[in-house]
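User: Okay, second chain of the day. Same drill as before: sequence in, structure tokens out.
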Amino acid sequence: LWQLTDAEQKYLQGLDVSFHVYCTDPAKRAVIINGLRASEGQALGEDLRLAEIVPDGIVLEFQGQFVHLANPQPY
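Assistant: Same drill. Structure tokens below.
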């Protein structure tokens, strides 16, 4: 995240991840971002895609770069 510009960091940090489920079965993984359910591979906006749901957060593809956002409150 630190490699992105300040504006890009603010944009990504402004995403509200309110629900996170990780399972070894990728079909059962899910998150809620900004009030909408999302699954792996789903586009979340222009130049933004949910690449992967990992045990400790999510990996986003943002403008061709992969960014790991950790859960703010570990389980």
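The radius of gyration is 12 Å.

User: Thanks, on to the next one.
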